[in-house]
Predict the structure.
Amino acid sequence: MTNEPAPVPAPRVVSLYNAANALTVIRIVLIPVFVAFVVVSGMTDPDWRIAACLAFCIASATDFVDGWIARRWQLVTSFGKVADPIADKALTGTALVLLSAYDQLPWWVTIAILVREWGVTALRFWVIRYGIIPASRGGKLKTGLQTAAIAWYLWPVPESAQIVGVCLMGAALIVTVVTGVDYVLQALRLRRAAGKS
C-alpha cells in the first residue's frame, strides 16, 4: 500500500464549437435578415411582414433551445455566457425599435423596456465579483411575453385582432418593470451581504 495521492481527473474542456454556441451565432446572423425583411415590408406588405415575423420567431426559438442544450449536455462556455444574453437583447431591442420607428408601438414603451434590459445587464456586471444573479421565473415569463407580443405586432393580423397585441405588450411591460425592480433589490442585497462578510 502506497501513500501516493489518488489521480485527479482533468477538468472537462468544452469546445467553443458546439451546438449551443452555433445556435447563438445563428441568432446573431438572423438579426440583420430580420431587419431587412421589416424594412422591405415597410410594415405594410403582408408577405414581407410574415417573413419578418418568421425570422424573428426562429431567432427567438434559438434563445430557448441553446440554453437548454448547453445545460443538458454541459456545453456552457465563456463565449456562450456573454454572447447569449447580448444576442437576446439585441434581437428584442432591434424589434422594438423597428416597431416604434414604423409607428406600431409607442416610443415610451420601447424606451422603458430597453432601459430595464440594459440596466439589468449593467447590474449583473456591477455585482459579478460578489455573485451571480440567476434568471428568475419572472424573467423567463417576461421573455416569453415580449416574444409573443412582438410576433403579434409583426404578423399582419386583422385590425379587430390588434388589441391582442396591445394586451400582450402591456403584460410584457408590467412583468418587465416588476422583474427589473426585483433584480435591483437582489443586486443591493448581494452587495450588502458582501460588505458584511
Notes: The mean pLDDT is 88. Residues 66 and 72 are 10 Å apart (CA to CA). The chain is about 75% helix and 0% strand. The helical segments are 19-41, 46-72, 78-101, 107-126, 137-154, 162-196.
